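Hi there. Long-time user, first ticket. I'm pasting a complex I've been working with (about 428 residues overall). I'd like to know whether the download I got is complete or cut off, because the file seemed smaller than I expected. Thanks.
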Amino acid sequence: MTSAAASAPDVVDEPGRRLSSDERRAQIIRAALTIFGARGYEGATTDEVARAAGVSQPYVVRLFGSKENLFLATIGFALDQLLSAFRVALAASDDGGERPVGKRIGEAYVDLIEVHGLHQTLAHAYLLGSNPAIGAAARQGFVRVWRFFRDEMGLDAEEARTFLAEGMLISTMIGLRIVDDYGSDPQITELFRACFPNKLPHVLEVLPRNEHRL
Amino acid sequence: MTSAAASAPDVVDEPGRRLSSDERRAQIIRAALTIFGARGYEGATTDEVARAAGVSQPYVVRLFGSKENLFLATIGFALDQLLSAFRVALAASDDGGERPVGKRIGEAYVDLIEVHGLHQTLAHAYLLGSNPAIGAAARQGFVRVWRFFRDEMGLDAEEARTFLAEGMLISTMIGLRIVDDYGSDPQITELFRACFPNKLPHVLEVLPRNEHRL
DNA sequence: GACTGTAGTAATCGTATGATTACAAAGTCA
DNA sequence: TGACTTTGTAATCATACGATTACTACAGTC
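Hi, the file is complete. Here it is re-exported in full:
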C-alpha cells in the first residue's frame, strides 16, 4: 500500500453513469493490461478486453482505432507507471536515505505486480521486436528504462545491466506463474525462494494463486 | 562453428524425396522454432510453419495432432538443445580448464542464437504461465535449467539466480531485435554494448539484421 | 423544447486459421 | 504383380475475431 502504483485513482464505474471518452479509455487500458498480460498481444481479443472493462467490443475498437493502437497505448501506460514508481522510490531515497537506492528501486519494481498484468504485458512487448510498430515502441520503451538507470539513478553501464537482468528475471517468474506451484512442488519452491529472496511474503500475498487465473 | 548448436545434422530435403515421419517432424520443429520465435505462440500460424518447412498445412497438424502439441514439442526440442549445449560447455571446462566454467556456459548460451528462434520461443513459453498445458510445460522446463545450474554445475542458489537473470536479459535483447538499430541509434548502441560486453562481434555477425526479418 | 454533439450498442461482415476429410502417390514385401 | 502401409496434398469446414455500419440514448445549450 505504500507504493506509488496503488495510488492511481481508479475510475469509478457506477452502473448507468456515462464516462468521458478519456475516462473510458483509461479504464479500458487497465483492463487491457490484465488481458494482454495473461494472453499476449495476439492471444488477447478485443472482446475479452471489452468484457473486462464492461463495455462492448466495437467501442473498444472505436476508442483506440485498432487492436494494435490499443496495445501501444497499453505499453505506454505501463511504462509511465513503471518510471513514475521508480522516480518516487528514487526521491524517497534522496531525503530519508535509510535504505540503499537499489533496494528501494527493486522493491518498487516488485510492488508493481499490484498493477495487474504490467510486468507480463511489457515482457510480451519486448518479445515482439519483429513487429514493425510494436517492436519500435518496445525498443524505445526499453531504452527509456535504460536511460532512467543511467541518467537519473546515475548507474554505470555494468550496474544498469545487472538491474535490467534482475528485472527481466522477476518478470519471467511472474509470467511463468511460478507462484501457482509454490509450496506443492519442492523444486519450484526452492526456485521461487531464490528468486525473491526478500520480498517473498509480499509477493505470495499479492500475486493471485491457482484457480484465480487473471 | 565450435558450438554444439551448429553440429546438429539438418535434414536434407532433396525435392522429390520422401522423408520418414520422424525426419519430417524434426524438420517441422526447426521451422516452428523460427516462426514461433518471431510471432509467438498465438501469433504464429500452422500455415507459416508448414510453408517454412516446405510441407502442406494439414500435414503439420496431422503429424503433431494440434498446434498446441507442436508448440510443446518445439519447446521440448529447444530445451534439449539448450541443456546439451550447456553440458558440452561444462565438459569442455572440466578437461582443459583454461577458461572459467561460467564464461563458457554464458558463451554457449549466446551461441544458441545460431539455432534460429530458440531463445525467443523459450521466452514466449515462459510468458504463457496462464495456459494450462503450456504453462505447466514451461515451468517444468524452467526448473530443468535451474536444476542444471544447481546440480550439474554445482552453483549455489544465489549464483544460479544471477545466471538465470543474465540469461533472461540476453533473451530479451534478442527478442527486442536491438541489433536492428545498432549503429544507427546511439542509445541503442550503448545499451547493446553494455549487454553483450564480450560477445559483441559474434552476436552482430550471427543475428540477422534489418530487412531480413526471420 | 428542438438542435447538436458525444457515449454507447446491436447486428453484421470479411477473413484468417486450425482442423477434418477424402484422396493420390510412393514405398514395401509376399 | 498385387495387397497393404505410409507419406503427402487439395478441398473444405466451422469458427473466432477485428472491424464497420447503422442505430439509440443521453447531455448540454440556445
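A couple of notes from our side: Chain B touches chain A through 50 residues (CB under 8 Å). The CA atoms of residues 51 and 57 of chain B lie 7 Å apart.
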